[in-house]
Amino acid sequence: CVFKDSGLVQRFNLYFEFFQFIKGLSLKVTYQFLKRGEDEIALRGQAFPNNIANSSPRLESFTMHHIIPKLTYDFGVHMPEGRTRPELGLYARLPFNGRNVGLVPMIGVVASVDF
């Protein structure tokens, strides 16, 4: 039997947004920081030493930094009396300066309809 004491997770998002600066077009830029503290394993028996079990790289702390620009167009500005409000967004997740983690850039599209 094993007990895992998970490390503290800290996540911060700072952003600024130019909201509908051209008709329904908005631009939002976010800085995201994520840090997870070191995990620790406590073994119940004496068959295996705790210090060896806690030497696994999977238990180490890690940090991630991202810049996330997002461009959104709100089609609802063309339908003020409409019952739905469609939106289309394009974003990129650009990582930098991480520690003990694999960071991969990502590009995506978001389509939504609010009603």
Helix vs. strand class: mainly beta
What composes the largest sheet? 5 strands, antiparallel
Mean pLDDT: 90
Name the beta content range. Answer: over 45%
Overall radius of gyration? 22 Å
Shape: elongated
User: Which blocks of ≥5 consecutive residues have pLDDT under 50?
Assistant: none
Helical content (DSSP H or I, runs of 4+): under 10%
**What is the succession of H and E elements?**
EEEEHEEE
Tally of DSSP β-strands: 7
For the largest sheet, list the strands in their spatial order: 2-3-5-6-7
The termini sit apart by 50 Å
Count helical runs.
1
Draw up the topology in text.
Layout: E1 2-5, E2 9-22, E3 25-36, E4 40-43, H1 50-53, E5 62-74, E6 85-99, E7 106-114
Antiparallel strand pairs: 1-4, 2-3, 3-5, 5-6, 6-7
